[in-house]
Amino acid sequence: MRTFSTEGPCDPARHHHLPAAPRLAEGLGLVDEGAYFLVRAPRRTGKTTSLRALAAELLASGRYAALVTSAEVGEPLGNDVARAEEALLASIRLSAEHDLPPELRPPPLPASADGTRIWAALSAWARVCPRPLVLFFDGADTLHGAALRTVLRQLEIGFPRRPAAFPWSIVLAGQLDLRLEPFRAAGDAPVRPGLTGPFETALSPEPLRTFTEDEIRALYAQHTHETGQTFEKDAIRAAREATAGHPFLVQALGRELVTTVPRAEAIREPHVRAAIHHLVDHRVTPIDALAARLAEPRVRRVVEPLLAGTALVARALDDDIRHARDLGLLAEDDPARIESGIHRALVPRLLASSVGRAITDDPARFYTTDGALDVEALLHAFAVFYKTHARTLVANAAYEAVAPELVFLGYLYRMIEPRGRVDVRWGGSRGRIDVVLRVVLAGGDEQHEAFVLVSRRKGESGAKARAVGFLEDVLDAEGLASGTVVLFDRRGKRAAGERVKLEQRSTAKGRAAWVLRA
Question: Whole-prediction pTM value?
Answer without folding.
Answer: 0.79
